[in-house]
Hints:
By secondary structure, the protein is mainly alpha-helical.
Amino acid sequence: xxxxxxxxxxxxxIDKEIDxxxxxxxxxxxxxxxxQQKLDLLQxxxxxxxxxxxxxxxxxxxxxxxxxxxxxxxxxNAKKAKDVSTEKEMKALSLEEDIxxxxxxxxxxxxxxxxxxxxxxxxxxxxxxxELESLKVSLAESNKEAIEQKEAIENSKSSLFKQREEIxxxxxxxxxxxxxxxxxxxxxxxxxxxxxxxxxxxxMKISDKSYADVIKSEEITTCPHCGRxxxxxxxxxxx
Length: 239
Protein backbone atom coordinates (compact mmCIF):
# COMPACT_ATOMS: atom_id res chain seq x y z
CA UNK A 1 0.00 0.00 0.00
CA UNK A 2 1.15 3.51 -0.76
CA UNK A 3 2.94 4.87 2.34
CA UNK A 4 1.10 8.20 2.26
CA UNK A 5 -2.23 6.41 1.97
CA UNK A 6 -1.41 4.19 4.95
CA UNK A 7 -0.52 7.24 7.00
CA UNK A 8 -3.69 9.03 5.93
CA UNK A 9 -5.72 6.02 7.08
CA UNK A 10 -4.00 6.08 10.47
CA UNK A 11 -4.40 9.86 10.69
CA UNK A 12 -8.10 9.58 9.91
CA UNK A 13 -8.57 6.92 12.60
CA ILE A 14 -6.83 9.11 15.16
CA ASP A 15 -8.92 12.15 14.20
CA LYS A 16 -12.06 10.06 14.52
CA GLU A 17 -10.98 8.82 17.95
CA ILE A 18 -10.17 12.36 19.10
CA ASP A 19 -13.54 13.70 17.93
CA UNK A 20 -15.21 10.67 19.51
CA UNK A 21 -14.50 12.19 22.92
CA UNK A 22 -16.68 15.25 22.17
CA UNK A 23 -20.01 13.43 22.73
CA UNK A 24 -18.64 12.12 26.05
CA UNK A 25 -17.73 15.64 27.17
CA UNK A 26 -21.12 16.93 26.01
CA UNK A 27 -22.88 14.16 27.97
CA UNK A 28 -20.90 15.05 31.11
CA UNK A 29 -21.74 18.76 30.73
CA UNK A 30 -25.39 17.97 29.99
CA UNK A 31 -25.67 15.88 33.14
CA UNK A 32 -24.13 18.66 35.24
CA UNK A 33 -26.37 21.28 33.64
CA UNK A 34 -29.46 19.19 34.37
CA UNK A 35 -28.45 18.83 38.04
CA GLN A 36 -27.67 22.54 38.30
CA GLN A 37 -31.02 23.47 36.75
CA LYS A 38 -32.82 21.20 39.22
CA LEU A 39 -30.96 22.85 42.09
CA ASP A 40 -31.72 26.33 40.74
CA LEU A 41 -35.43 25.54 40.41
CA LEU A 42 -35.52 24.27 43.99
CA GLN A 43 -33.68 27.37 45.19
CA UNK A 44 -36.20 29.58 43.35
CA UNK A 45 -39.04 27.68 45.03
CA UNK A 46 -37.41 28.19 48.44
CA UNK A 47 -36.85 31.89 47.76
CA UNK A 48 -40.47 32.28 46.66
CA UNK A 49 -41.72 30.51 49.78
CA UNK A 50 -39.51 32.63 52.03
CA UNK A 51 -40.86 35.76 50.35
CA UNK A 52 -44.43 34.50 50.84
CA UNK A 53 -43.80 33.81 54.55
CA UNK A 54 -42.24 37.25 54.99
CA UNK A 55 -45.19 38.85 53.22
CA UNK A 56 -47.56 37.00 55.55
CA UNK A 57 -45.62 38.27 58.56
CA UNK A 58 -46.16 41.81 57.28
CA UNK A 59 -49.89 41.13 56.90
CA UNK A 60 -50.08 39.80 60.47
CA UNK A 61 -48.25 42.87 61.73
CA UNK A 62 -50.66 45.09 59.80
CA UNK A 63 -53.69 43.35 61.35
CA UNK A 64 -52.09 43.56 64.82
CA UNK A 65 -51.61 47.30 64.36
CA UNK A 66 -55.23 47.56 63.20
CA UNK A 67 -56.41 45.70 66.32
CA UNK A 68 -54.35 48.02 68.48
CA UNK A 69 -55.89 51.08 66.80
CA UNK A 70 -59.41 49.67 67.12
CA UNK A 71 -58.80 48.81 70.78
CA UNK A 72 -57.78 52.40 71.47
CA UNK A 73 -60.89 53.55 69.62
CA UNK A 74 -63.10 51.33 71.82
CA UNK A 75 -61.44 52.66 74.98
CA UNK A 76 -61.94 56.19 73.73
CA ASN A 77 -65.63 55.53 72.97
CA ALA A 78 -66.07 54.02 76.42
CA LYS A 79 -64.85 57.27 77.95
CA LYS A 80 -67.03 59.32 75.63
CA ALA A 81 -70.08 57.24 76.59
CA LYS A 82 -69.89 58.70 80.12
CA ASP A 83 -70.43 62.18 78.74
CA VAL A 84 -73.15 61.28 76.22
CA SER A 85 -76.34 63.18 76.90
CA THR A 86 -78.57 62.28 73.97
CA GLU A 87 -79.90 59.01 72.53
CA LYS A 88 -78.61 59.98 69.08
CA GLU A 89 -75.06 60.31 70.35
CA MET A 90 -75.39 56.99 72.17
CA LYS A 91 -76.55 55.21 69.01
CA ALA A 92 -73.66 56.71 67.03
CA LEU A 93 -71.13 55.50 69.60
CA SER A 94 -72.81 52.09 69.71
CA LEU A 95 -72.60 51.81 65.92
CA GLU A 96 -68.93 52.76 65.96
CA GLU A 97 -68.31 50.16 68.66
CA ASP A 98 -70.07 47.41 66.68
CA ILE A 99 -68.07 48.25 63.53
CA UNK A 100 -64.83 48.31 65.51
CA UNK A 101 -65.59 44.94 67.10
CA UNK A 102 -66.41 43.41 63.69
CA UNK A 103 -63.13 44.71 62.31
CA UNK A 104 -61.24 43.35 65.32
CA UNK A 105 -62.92 39.97 64.94
CA UNK A 106 -62.02 39.85 61.24
CA UNK A 107 -58.44 40.89 61.98
CA UNK A 108 -58.06 38.17 64.62
CA UNK A 109 -59.47 35.55 62.23
CA UNK A 110 -57.04 36.67 59.53
CA UNK A 111 -54.10 36.54 61.95
CA UNK A 112 -55.06 32.97 62.90
CA UNK A 113 -55.59 31.94 59.27
CA UNK A 114 -52.32 33.46 58.03
CA UNK A 115 -50.48 32.01 61.05
CA UNK A 116 -51.63 28.49 60.19
CA UNK A 117 -50.69 29.09 56.57
CA UNK A 118 -47.19 30.11 57.63
CA UNK A 119 -46.86 27.01 59.82
CA UNK A 120 -47.55 24.80 56.81
CA UNK A 121 -45.20 26.82 54.62
CA UNK A 122 -42.45 26.66 57.25
CA UNK A 123 -42.80 22.88 57.49
CA UNK A 124 -42.58 22.59 53.70
CA UNK A 125 -39.65 24.97 53.71
CA UNK A 126 -37.71 22.74 56.11
CA UNK A 127 -38.22 19.77 53.78
CA UNK A 128 -37.15 21.81 50.77
CA UNK A 129 -33.99 23.01 52.53
CA UNK A 130 -33.08 19.41 53.39
CA GLU A 131 -33.60 18.46 49.74
CA LEU A 132 -31.54 21.48 48.66
CA GLU A 133 -28.59 20.48 50.82
CA SER A 134 -28.80 16.94 49.46
CA LEU A 135 -28.77 18.27 45.90
CA LYS A 136 -25.78 20.50 46.68
CA VAL A 137 -23.82 17.51 47.98
CA SER A 138 -24.82 15.45 44.95
CA LEU A 139 -23.84 18.26 42.57
CA ALA A 140 -20.49 18.71 44.29
CA GLU A 141 -19.80 14.99 43.88
CA SER A 142 -20.89 15.13 40.23
CA ASN A 143 -18.61 18.11 39.62
CA LYS A 144 -15.69 16.27 41.16
CA GLU A 145 -16.44 13.18 39.08
CA ALA A 146 -16.81 15.31 35.94
CA ILE A 147 -13.44 16.95 36.51
CA GLU A 148 -11.79 13.53 36.88
CA GLN A 149 -13.52 12.22 33.75
CA LYS A 150 -12.54 15.28 31.73
CA GLU A 151 -8.95 15.05 32.94
CA ALA A 152 -8.82 11.41 31.82
CA ILE A 153 -10.27 12.39 28.45
CA GLU A 154 -7.78 15.25 28.04
CA ASN A 155 -4.90 12.91 28.87
CA SER A 156 -6.12 10.44 26.24
CA LYS A 157 -6.59 13.22 23.72
CA SER A 158 -3.13 14.57 24.48
CA SER A 159 -1.63 11.16 23.73
CA LEU A 160 -3.59 10.96 20.50
CA PHE A 161 -2.52 14.46 19.48
CA LYS A 162 1.11 13.42 19.88
CA GLN A 163 0.51 10.41 17.65
CA ARG A 164 -1.24 12.67 15.16
CA GLU A 165 1.68 15.10 15.08
CA GLU A 166 4.11 12.26 14.44
CA ILE A 167 2.08 10.94 11.53
CA UNK A 168 1.36 14.41 10.13
CA UNK A 169 5.07 15.27 10.22
CA UNK A 170 5.82 12.26 8.03
CA UNK A 171 3.25 13.22 5.40
CA UNK A 172 4.01 15.45 2.46
CA UNK A 173 2.57 18.89 3.14
CA UNK A 174 0.62 18.80 -0.11
CA UNK A 175 -1.08 15.53 0.82
CA UNK A 176 -1.74 16.69 4.37
CA UNK A 177 -3.36 19.89 3.06
CA UNK A 178 -5.43 17.82 0.63
CA UNK A 179 -6.68 15.64 3.50
CA UNK A 180 -7.48 18.64 5.71
CA UNK A 181 -9.50 20.27 2.91
CA UNK A 182 -11.61 17.15 2.50
CA UNK A 183 -12.02 16.89 6.27
CA UNK A 184 -13.46 20.42 6.40
CA UNK A 185 -16.68 19.19 4.78
CA UNK A 186 -16.47 15.40 5.25
CA UNK A 187 -15.44 15.44 8.90
CA UNK A 188 -14.31 12.05 10.11
CA UNK A 189 -15.35 10.39 6.87
CA UNK A 190 -12.57 12.03 4.84
CA UNK A 191 -10.90 8.61 4.42
CA UNK A 192 -13.31 5.71 3.97
CA UNK A 193 -13.10 2.06 2.92
CA UNK A 194 -14.54 0.58 -0.25
CA UNK A 195 -16.88 -2.33 0.37
CA UNK A 196 -18.75 -4.25 -2.31
CA UNK A 197 -17.26 -1.78 -4.80
CA UNK A 198 -19.04 1.14 -3.10
CA UNK A 199 -17.63 4.20 -1.35
CA UNK A 200 -18.55 3.99 2.32
CA UNK A 201 -18.74 7.77 2.52
CA UNK A 202 -21.45 8.44 -0.04
CA UNK A 203 -22.43 4.77 -0.59
CA MET A 204 -22.25 5.18 -4.36
CA LYS A 205 -20.83 2.39 -6.51
CA ILE A 206 -17.51 3.26 -8.15
CA SER A 207 -16.33 2.23 -11.61
CA ASP A 208 -14.27 -0.89 -12.26
CA LYS A 209 -11.23 1.25 -13.06
CA SER A 210 -11.48 3.25 -9.86
CA TYR A 211 -12.03 0.06 -7.92
CA ALA A 212 -8.93 -1.49 -9.50
CA ASP A 213 -6.91 1.60 -8.56
CA VAL A 214 -8.12 1.36 -4.98
CA ILE A 215 -7.19 -2.31 -4.81
CA LYS A 216 -3.70 -1.62 -6.13
CA SER A 217 -3.27 1.21 -3.57
CA GLU A 218 -0.28 2.50 -5.49
CA GLU A 219 -1.63 6.04 -5.48
CA ILE A 220 -4.16 7.96 -3.45
CA THR A 221 -7.55 7.44 -5.08
CA THR A 222 -10.60 9.55 -4.42
CA CYS A 223 -14.26 8.74 -4.91
CA PRO A 224 -15.44 10.05 -8.30
CA HIS A 225 -18.81 10.92 -6.72
CA CYS A 226 -17.97 12.63 -3.44
CA GLY A 227 -14.20 13.17 -3.48
CA ARG A 228 -13.38 11.23 -0.32
CA UNK A 229 -10.11 9.32 -0.11
CA UNK A 230 -10.68 5.60 -0.66
CA UNK A 231 -8.87 2.49 0.52
CA UNK A 232 -9.36 -1.26 0.67
CA UNK A 233 -9.57 -2.87 4.10
CA UNK A 234 -7.05 -5.63 4.48
CA UNK A 235 -7.84 -8.72 6.49
CA UNK A 236 -6.04 -7.31 9.52
CA UNK A 237 -8.04 -4.06 9.37
CA UNK A 238 -11.32 -5.93 8.99
CA UNK A 239 -10.55 -8.06 12.05
